[in-house]
Specification:
about 15% strand; binds adenosine-5'-diphosphate; 4 strands; 9 helices; alpha+beta; about 40% helix
Length: about 170
C-alpha cells in the first residue's frame, strides 16, 4: 500500500522522484539471454547495491518494441533493431536505488561496445552495436515511460531492503 502511494506520488510529481527510490528499466536483450548473461547482468546490479523490484522473461511483441524505441523510428537501423529484439526472449527488470538511472548506464557502458570501457557490461561481453546485450533507460523520464510500458503496476514489488541501512547514510 505504501509502495502504491509512493509510486502514484512519484508519477504525479516527477520532481519528487529520485533519492533511494529512483527506478530504472533494464533489459537483457535476446543475445544476452542466449549467451547466458542474465545472471551476470543481475549480479552486477545487485553487487552495486541496487534493489530488484520486478523481473520477467518476455517474448516482446512488435507493438511493444515499436513503442519502446519510438524515438528511433526514423533511423536506418530501426527495422534491424526490431528484428533483433524479437529474435528471442528478453529479461525485463526494474531496479531501484540512489541515482540508479545514471549509475546503471555507467555499469552498462556506451551504446557501441567498442567505446565501452572494460569493466562495463558492454565493454566486457560484446563487440557490435547491433548486438549490445543489454538496455538501460537513459533518463528518469524514460525510465518511468519504459517501466509503465513493460510492467503492470501490480508486478512492481515493494519489499523491505534490509541492506539499505548499510548502503545509505
Ligand atoms: P542505448 O541503448 O545505449 O540507449 P540508443 O537509444 O541510441 O542507445 O539505441 C538503442 C539501441 O539501438 C542500441 O542499444 C542498439 O541496440 C541499437 N542501435 C543504436 N545505434 C545503432 C546502429 N548504428 N546500428 C545498429 N543498431 C543500433
Amino acid at each position: 500500500m505504501i509502495c502504491l502511494v509512493l509510486t502514484v506520488f512519484a508519477n504525479l510529481f516527477p520532481a519528487a522522484r529520485g533519492g533511494a527510490h529512483e527506478r530504472t528499466f533494464v533489459a537483457v536483450k535476446p543475445d544476452g539471454v542466449q549467451r547466458r548473461l542474465v545472471g551476470e547482468v543481475v549480479r552486477r546490479l545487485e553487487r552495486k547495491g541496487f534493489q530488484l523490484v520486478a523481473l520477467k522473461l518476455v517474448q516482446a511483441p512488435e507493438e511493444l518494441l515499436r513503442e519502446h524505441y519510438a524515438e528511433l523510428r526514423q533511423r536506418p537501423f530501426f527495422g534491424r533493431l526490431l528484428q533483433y529484439m524479437r529474435s528471442g526472449p528478453v529479461v525485463a527488470m526494474v531496479w531501484q536505488g540512489l541515482d540508479v538511472v545514471r549509475a546503471s548506464r555507467a555499469l552498462i557502458g556506451a551504446t557501441d561496445p567498442a567505446d565501452a570501457p572494460p569493466g562495463t557490461i558492454r565493454g566486457d561481453f560484446c563487440v557490435e552495436i547491433g548486438k549490445n546485450v543489454v538496455h538501460g533507460s537513459d533518463s528518469v523520464d524514460s525510465a518511468r515511460r519504459e517501466i509503465a510500458l513493460w510492467f503492470r503496476a501490480d508486478e512492481l514489488l515493494c519489499w523491505e531492503d534490509s541492506a539499505g541501512h548499510w548502503l545509505y547514510e
